[in-house]
Structures are given as C-alpha cells and as structure tokens.
C-alpha cells in the first residue's frame, strides 16, 4: 500500500495531509502552528516578510504531529502547495540571504509601474499577460536596487514552494506555473520572460531549472527520510501555488469551472483556455496546473488580500486583554445580526497593496460605527459582508474577461465555515456555491498521486471528492442584499 503526503505552506500555517492511494481516502491531517497564525513581519509600512527557515520549522512540526497519529513509513510521493508570489533568495550553501518578501508586500509597486511603462502594454499583452506589478520579479528587482550586497550572495531565486521542495530533496528547481506567478513566463513562446528580466537587469542564471508540475521533481534526502520515517526513494511529484492547487483540490480543471478560498486572502479563480489580459490589472492570468501545449489551461485570479487576515484581526482585537473568542463564536455573533449590520460598513483593504484597486493601499475602513447601536454581532457581520462584497465587486472585473462565475466551488474551511458568509457570497456574486470536504493539503497529496502514477489521471485522483453542502441566491433576500451592496459601492 502506498500513501501520498500533501504539504500546504500558507502565510498563516503549514498544513499536511496523508492520503491513501487506494481510493483517495484521507488518513490523517495536522498543522503547525495550532493556536495562532504565523507572524508576518513588517519592518516598514507596506512591507511583509517571513523567514523561509520558519516555514521549514513548522513543516517539521506539522509532520511530527501527523506521524503521531499515523506512521509515515508508507509515503512514497509528496505534493506541495504554497503561498504564491514570495521571493526566496538562497546562497550556494542553501541558506536564505534575507527574509522572504511575501505576497502581500507592496514595496515594489512603483518599480512594477515603471516596468510596465518601459516594456509596453502591447508586449505585456502578447507575452506575460500581466504587468510586473507587485509580483515576484519586481520584488527581486527591489532587492537588486536597494540591497545589492545582499543579492550578490544569492545564487538562486525561487518561490516558497520551491524552498520546501529544496529542503526535502536538496535540489533547486521550479515549474512553468511558478514562473508565470513570478511574471517571468512568456505565454507565447513558452519560455522565461526575457523582456522582464532584461528590463530589470536580473541574472537569468539565478532561476532554477524547470521540472513538470506533475512528475518527478526530486528524491527526498536520506536524512529527511530518516527524520520522518519516509521510505527511501520517496519523491516529490507535484508542486503548485496555493490558488491553482486549491482549484485542483476542488476539481476545477476545465474552462468554466471556478474555485474560491477565503483564508488569509480571499480568491476567486476561474479556469479558461483563453489567454486573457486585463489592462487595468485588477485580475491576473497564470498557468493552471494542467496546462499543456496541446490543451491550454489558465487561471484568471481575483485576490482580495485582507479576508481571513481581517477576521483574525477582529478576533485578536475582541480578545485583547482577556479570553480570545474562537472562530465559532465569531460566526455565531455574525448570524445574530441582520443583513446590512444595522448600517455598519467594512472595507477589507488592510493587508497590503490591492490589485483590484490599482495596487493602492488605502487601509481597511469601518464606516458608520455607532457606539450605542453596534457591538460584536454587528462588527463581525459587517466584516463578513464587507469581504463578500469585495469579492463580488472583483467578480465584475472577471466578467469583463468572460469569466463571471456561474457556479463556485469552495472547501468548507476558514470563512466558508460560516453559513452567513456563504449566503452573502452566493447572494452578492449571484452564483450558487458548492462546498466540499477538502483543502489544499489534501489536493496536493492527490496531485502527488498523479505525478507518481499512483492514480491513472485527475479523474481517479479526485473521485473521492465529496460535496457536503451548498448555498444559492434566495429571492426573498435579494432586496436586502441589493440595498447593502449599493450602499457599500457608493462609499467605495
């Protein structure tokens, strides 16, 4: 019997799942940390950093917890999902030369805007489909411009998931999908985007070689196998950014299929076979996990940075100096408030530069707060509704590219654990919401089975995926939500 291991590296925690390759049943799961989110360091306003070594430390802890419930001796392939767009720079000994500049960091916005003007919209539209914006290539360019002595120590530039694979295997590599999220992939010629590299003066030799998204990516080192009890010859056989991986875990593989998540950030991700370009860069197009020369598969991604992070802020704030409420308590409070939260409005722009708003960083806003009328229920409901409204507002941009969601799939996790949020999301987007018992770690494990040949294809890998509920827009709620959304957009 072979087991499949999935690792999901987020900016809040590392989750791991063990899946049986005979039927895809989940055997065990764990995460680290368990009681609070990983810290995001902000040395200056608009900055966001984490140390890659911290990710590995919590990967080790999560795997140790997992092995307490189920031995890992039958693991023969590993899949990795990871927080997108982060920059990891390694020296020749494999040590990071500086903390990773992660996805919600906004220090490179001006560099990205200048690069877009210099490279030209026509070139971008025909090659990368995305402006360099605030993506990984621009963060790399920021280090080159501001920390040249630090960059001089680096011999490899990679993504967070590439780093976890490196710690497992000792091999430095990345994927085409990874290059696309760095905005270093030329969709037309299917090679690195040399126009971006040349503009920034970045050394292409720092990019590691490509490996397939599904397939052998490196053999796990002997000492790592000994540490966790893996079989010798265990392989890493899959790797993808968290949003393409989340879409995979929800069986969103073909044009017209849409996935959503509401963890630290909130994302709607629509699969297409067309190369779509949003000149305003409110939404972005990346290679999907099953893209090939024979059958193009791309993902149009809408991201709202401050979703789960906003909810976590509320939880910390309400619990400051006392007992911190659990998320179940927050969801209960939210359910007690009427639609519209008695006039209270929330805008979740408090976690870095928002692509939807032209990479501006206005900060989160709470409007119409009345000390005599509004308490924990109204505040909690307003934050949920404001997040749902932001996702629905962004859906309009997706609609302009022909990707307006008609049905959305999501895991029953994070904010989608709240019935109120689920109803608000469905009501405001106008799309039925299908909920599944899965997450990114499970998806990465099943994908690893495809990469290793344990599953014949994606259909077999995802056959055990179970829908456990759903929500649809309700006619009797239409007027109340339309009134709320109108007021929310007026202030925006």
Keyword list:
alpha+beta, six-stranded mixed sheet, Nucleotidyltransferase, domain 5, 21 strands, seven-stranded mixed sheet, 492 residues, 2 domains
What does this structure look like?
- The chain is an alpha+beta fold and 492 residues long.
- The protein has two domains: 248 residues, ATPase, nucleotide binding domain (Nucleotidyltransferase, domain 5), CATH 3.30.420.40; 157 residues, 2-Layer Sandwich (Nucleotidyltransferase, domain 5).
- Helices cover 36% and strands 20% of the residues.
- It has a seven-stranded mixed β-sheet with strand order 15-16-14-13-19-20-21.
- Helix 11 runs antiparallel to helix 13 and helix 12 packs across helix 13.
- It is globular, with a radius of gyration of 22 Å.
- The model has no long low-confidence stretch (mean pLDDT 96).
CATH topology of the largest domain: Nucleotidyltransferase, domain 5
Q: How far apart are the first and last residues' alpha carbons, in Å? A: 55 Å
Low-confidence stretches: none
Named CATH architecture of the largest domain = 2-Layer Sandwich
Summarize the model shown.
With 492 residues, this protein is α+β, with helices and mostly antiparallel strands. It contains 17 helices and 21 strands. It folds into 2 domains: 3-250, Nucleotidyltransferase, domain 5 (2-Layer Sandwich); 305-437 and 468-491, ATPase, nucleotide binding domain (Nucleotidyltransferase, domain 5).
């Amino acid at each position: 019997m072979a087991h499949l291991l999935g690792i999901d590296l987020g900016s809040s925690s590392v989750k791991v799942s063990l899946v049986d390759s005979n039927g895809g049943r989940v055997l065990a799961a764990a995460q680290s940390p368990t009681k609070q989110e990983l810290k995001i360091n902000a040395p200056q306003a608009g900055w966001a950093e984490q140390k890659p070594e911290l990710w590995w430390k919590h990967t080790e802890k999560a795997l140790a917890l997992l092995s307490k419930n189920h031995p890992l001796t039958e693991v023969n392939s590993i899949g990795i999902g990871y927080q997108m767009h982060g920059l990891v720079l390694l020296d020749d000994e494999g040590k990071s030369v500086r903390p990773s500049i992660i996805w919600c960091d906004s220090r490179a916005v001006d560099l990205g805007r200048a690069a877009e003007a210099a490279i030209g919209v026509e070139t971008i539209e025909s090659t990368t489909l995305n402006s360099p914006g605030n993506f990984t290539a621009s963060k790399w360019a920021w280090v080159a411009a501001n920390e040249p002595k630090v960059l001089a120590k680096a011999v490899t530039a990679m993504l967070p998931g590439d780093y976890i694979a490196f710690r497992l295997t000792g091999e430095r590599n990345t994927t085409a999908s990874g290059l696309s999220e760095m905005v270093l992939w030329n969709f037309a010629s299917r090679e690195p985007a040399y126009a971006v590299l040349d503009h920034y003066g970045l050394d292409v030799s720092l990019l590691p070689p490509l490996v397939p998204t599904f397939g052998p990516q490196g053999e796990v080192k002997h000492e790592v196998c000994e540490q966790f009890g893996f079989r010798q010859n265990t392989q890493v056989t899959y790797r993808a950014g968290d949003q393409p991986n989340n879409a995979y875990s929800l069986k969103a593989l073909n044009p017209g299929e849409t996935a959503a998540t509401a963890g630290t950030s909130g994302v709607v991700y629509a699969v297409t076979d067309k190369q779509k370009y949003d000149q305003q860069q409110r939404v972005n197009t990346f290679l999907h996990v099953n893209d090939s020369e024979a059958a193009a598969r791309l993902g149009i991604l809408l991201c709202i940075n401050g979703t789960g992070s906003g909810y976590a802020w509320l939880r910390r704030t309400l619990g400051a100096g006392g007992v911190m409420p659990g998320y179940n308590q927050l969801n209960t409070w939210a359910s007690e408030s009427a639609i519209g939260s008695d006039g209270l409005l929330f805008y979740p722009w408090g976690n870095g530069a928002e692509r939807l708003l032209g990479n501006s960083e206005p900060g989160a806003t709470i409007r119409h707060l009345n000390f005599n009328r509004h308490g924990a229920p109204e505040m909690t409901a307003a934050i949920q509704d404001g997040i749902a409204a932001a996702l629905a507002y962004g859906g309009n941009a997706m609609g302009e590219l022909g990707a307006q969601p008609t049905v959305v799939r999501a895991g029953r996790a994070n904010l989608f654990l709240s019935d109120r949020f689920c109803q608000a999301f469905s009501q405001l987007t106008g799309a039925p919401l299908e909920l599944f018992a899965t997450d990114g770690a499970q998806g990465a494990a099943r994908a690893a089975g495809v990469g290793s040949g344990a599953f014949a294809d994606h259909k077999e890998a995802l056959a055990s995926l179970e829908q456990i509920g759903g929500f649809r827009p309700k006619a009797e709620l239409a007027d109340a939500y339309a009134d709320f959304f109108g007021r929310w957009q007026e202030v925006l």
